[in-house]
């Protein structure tokens, strides 16, 4: 029992450390590549307006500007998605609501959210895990399932936090996808499913996923509140 408790505590510290590392990466991206792209765009825009540039050169420059602007937009979306939502100072329900609104804004996909009135708050590692799991589930539902809407429910059951996410998409075969993700997991673009499972296991929770081709997906997670 003591070894289990120590392992669980170590896992919680690891999750918190991973979140701090993620925020450092986000900050480095903002202060590094984003600023470099801005500088490159400025130089190209000067070249585009130059009277010495012929029509062919101007066309190539406009194409390069378009590519850089698209890349910048994708990086901005990434930074916006992974910017820390104030885990320490905001309650779980408020953070989840903010994530749902953000997802709808970025994807124009409807999220039907239900947050139990007695949800309360939870330990920081659980809050981070719930947030990142939901973020990944919503992103997967948007990118891979072809769903028109997603449903999210967050509730408390005694000393546990319950998260349920479902969609009306095309569905898939979870066992096949999880087996494929054992080796790096990039094939098919479902790497996040293994990440969800790993986060839940690290905190001693439960994770189930019910899906099949043609009938959507339902994901359920139970994590200790403290």
Mean pLDDT: 79
Based on the structure given, which CATH architecture of the largest domain is correct? 2-Layer Sandwich
Got a strand count? 5
Shape by Cα distribution: elongated
Per CATH, the class of the largest domain reads Alpha Beta
Judged by helices, strands and strand pairing, the structural class is alpha+beta
Topology:
Blueprint: H1 2-31, H2 33-48, H3 55-82, H4 92-107, E1 110-115, H5 124-144, E2 149-157, E3 160-167, H6 174-180, H7 191-202, E4 206-211, E5 217-224
Helix pairs in contact: 1-3, 1-5, 2-3, 4-5, 5-7
Short description, anyone?
The protein contains 7 helices and 5 strands.
Can you give a write-up of this model?
- The chain is an alpha+beta fold.
- The protein folds into two domains: 2-81; 89-224, Histidine kinase-like ATPase, C-terminal domain (Heat Shock Protein 90, 2-Layer Sandwich).
- 58% of the residues lie in helices and 16% in strands.
- It has seven helices and five strands; from the N terminus they run ααααβαββααββ.
- The chain has helices spanning 2-31, 33-48, 55-82, 92-107, 124-144, 174-180, 191-202, and strands spanning 110-115, 149-157, 160-167, 206-211, 217-224.
- The protein has a five-stranded mixed beta sheet, with helices on one face.
- α2 (33-48) runs antiparallel to α3, α4 (92-107) packs parallel to α5 and α5 packs antiparallel against α7 (191-202).
């Amino acid at each position: 029992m003591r070894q289990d408790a120590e392992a669980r505590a170590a896992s919680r510290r690891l999750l918190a450390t991973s979140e701090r590392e993620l925020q450092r990466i986000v900050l480095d991206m903002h202060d590094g590549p984003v600023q470099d792209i801005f500088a490159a765009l400025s130089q190209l825009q000067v070249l585009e307006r130059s009277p010495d540039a012929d029509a062919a050169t101007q066309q190539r420059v406009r194409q390069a500007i378009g590519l850089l602007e698209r890349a910048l937009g994708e990086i901005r979306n990434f930074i916006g998605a992974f910017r820390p939502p104030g885990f320490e100072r905001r309650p779980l329900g408020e953070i989840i609501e903010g994530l749902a609104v953000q997802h709808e804004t970025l994807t124009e996909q409807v999220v039907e959210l239900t947050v139990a009135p007695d949800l309360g708050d939870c330990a920081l590692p659980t809050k981070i895990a719930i947030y990142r799991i939901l973020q990944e589930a919503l992103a997967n539902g948007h990118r891979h399932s072809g769903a028109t809407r997603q449903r999210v429910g967050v509730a408390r059951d005694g000393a546990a936090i319950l998260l349920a996410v479902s969609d009306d998409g095309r569905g898939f075969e979870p066992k096949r996808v999880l087996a494929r993700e054992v080796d790096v997991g990039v094939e098919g673009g479902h790497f996040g499913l293994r990440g969800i499972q790993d986060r839940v296991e690290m905190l001693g929770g439960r994770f189930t996923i019910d899906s099949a081709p043609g009938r959507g997906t339902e994901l359920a997670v139970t994590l200790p509140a403290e």
